[in-house]
Amino acid sequence: MKRFFVALALVGALGACDGGNPASESDDSAGVGTGAQPLIDEPMPTNVPTEPGGSTGPDVYGTDANADLTMNDVDFDPQTGQLVLNNLPFDGGDNRYARDTAASTALGNAGSPFSAYRNVQGSNRYYAVFRRSASGYSQVTAVGNDNYVTFGFGGASAQRLSGDGSLPNANQNYVFNGEYAAVRTIIDPDTGSEIQYVIGDVRIDVDIEDFDDLGAVEGIIANRQFFDKAGVPINDLNGSDEFISLATAQIDFSNWTIQSSTAGVYGGNNTNGVGATGTWQGLFTGPNGEEVAGIVVVEGTGPIGIDPNTGDYIQVDVREVGAFVATR
Q1: Mean pLDDT, to the nearest integer, of 295-322?
Q2: Do the bridges between strand 82-86 and strand 192-207 make them parallel or antiparallel, or are there none, so unpaired?
Q3: pTM (two decimals)
Q4: Which of 40, 45, 223, 229 has the most CB atoms at less than 10 Å from its CB?
Q5: Is 204 helix (H, G, I), strand (E, B) or coil?
Q6: Which of 325, 323, 322 is nearest to 302 (CA)?
Q7: What pLDDT digit, counting tens, does each position of 35-94 carry?
């Protein structure tokens, strides 16, 4: 990934918040909100517990997967329902992100416990998905932006909020099931950079005994659904990317983290092989390893719609930055 970005033309800087609410996006130079999908300081979403507090570590970030995924800390404010995402350039002086009501509602109506977020201030437009698990043991975040003619800056994180993640029985296999969400940056040569949201289901299989003293973990992300940045479903993409394979990884038992392994997108136009590729990693959370939280970063060509002339999927460069929480 090239570290040199060419900014799209932006007229002026984003306006400051007025009374805690960002300005309208009817003009891109004015702010990040719209009348149809306001970013407001809302109470905490009902599916997010107020306890416990900050991360107990160790946390997993996308900085190892891609040098442009610079986010390196996430704090959630349960009183306002806002996020603070650290180390993303031009996202506002206080790095605060507010819940996008319309997009979050669309994801929730499709069965996802994740919420969508947007930065409140700043000259770059960032889009994030976030979830704190119902137990409060984990929280995960993924973020991207549409300000560059390349994929630009973003990030992903999986954080342990409670427990050391250790599983109770070293001679047992475990299955974890849960939910996945992602921010997908697409580079369309005709329209420039665009953002999509992706949700899906995740299954993680764990074998503590093998490989001997290393353990083995692998998984799959399926039932993928796509939305535009306003939360409108992109039905043309249903079935285009059938699943993401999370290749076998090893466990670091000293801190109950899952070491990085490869990930690849299969299905749709990629039935003869893998499409976008990348890595995944994660960690166990909770006092008895009740949850797995992880991140996924894949990059390559992927579908963005259907060509009306041929009926084939239109393929462009995409980067998908995602995160998941799964419970045993």
Answers
A1: 91
A2: unpaired
A3: 0.82
A4: 229
A5: strand
A6: 322
A7: 333 343 333 343 344 344 455 668 999 998 899 999 999 999 988 899 999 999 999 999
- CA-based nearest residue to 62, from 311, 296, 299: 296
- What ranges do the domains of the chain cover? 60-327
Is 116 in contact with 94 (CB distance < 8 Å)? no
Would residue 124 be called left, alpha or beta, if left means φ above 0 and alpha means ψ between -120 and 50 degrees? beta
Q: Round to the nearest angstrom and report the end-to-end CA distance of the chain.
A: 36
What are phi and psi for residue 205, nearest 5 degrees? -105, 135
Q: What is the average per-residue pLDDT within 233-253?
A: 90
In degrees, rounded to 5, the angle at the alpha carbon of residue 153 between the alpha carbons of residues 33 and 235 is 60
Q: Which amino acid, residue 91?
A: D
Using the structure block, give the residue that is written with the tokens 């893998």: 274
Residue 101 gets the label, from left (phi > 0), alpha (psi -120 to 50) or beta, of alpha
Rg (CA), the chain: 19
Distance CA 290, CA 161 (A): 12
Instruction: Give the residues across from 246 on adjacent strands.
Output: 219, 263
pLDDT tens figures, 211-232: 556 789 999 999 999 999 999 9
The pLDDT of residue 50: 38
Distance, in Å, from the CA atom of 125 to the CA atom of 262, rounded to the nearest integer, reads: 29
Calpha distance 13→21 (Å, rounded):
16
H-assigned helices in the chain: 101-109
Bridge partner list, 299: 277, 319
Q: What are phi and psi of 268, to 5 degrees?
A: 60, -125
Please name the residues in contact with 219: beta carbons below 8 A apart, sequence gap of 6 or more.
202, 203, 204, 205, 246, 280, 326
Residue 62, strand partner residues: none
Place of tokens 């990059």: 299
Q: Which of 269, 182, 281 lies closest to 227, judged by CA?
A: 182
pLDDT digits (tens, 9 = 90+) for 109-153: 999 999 999 999 999 999 999 999 999 999 999 999 998 888 999
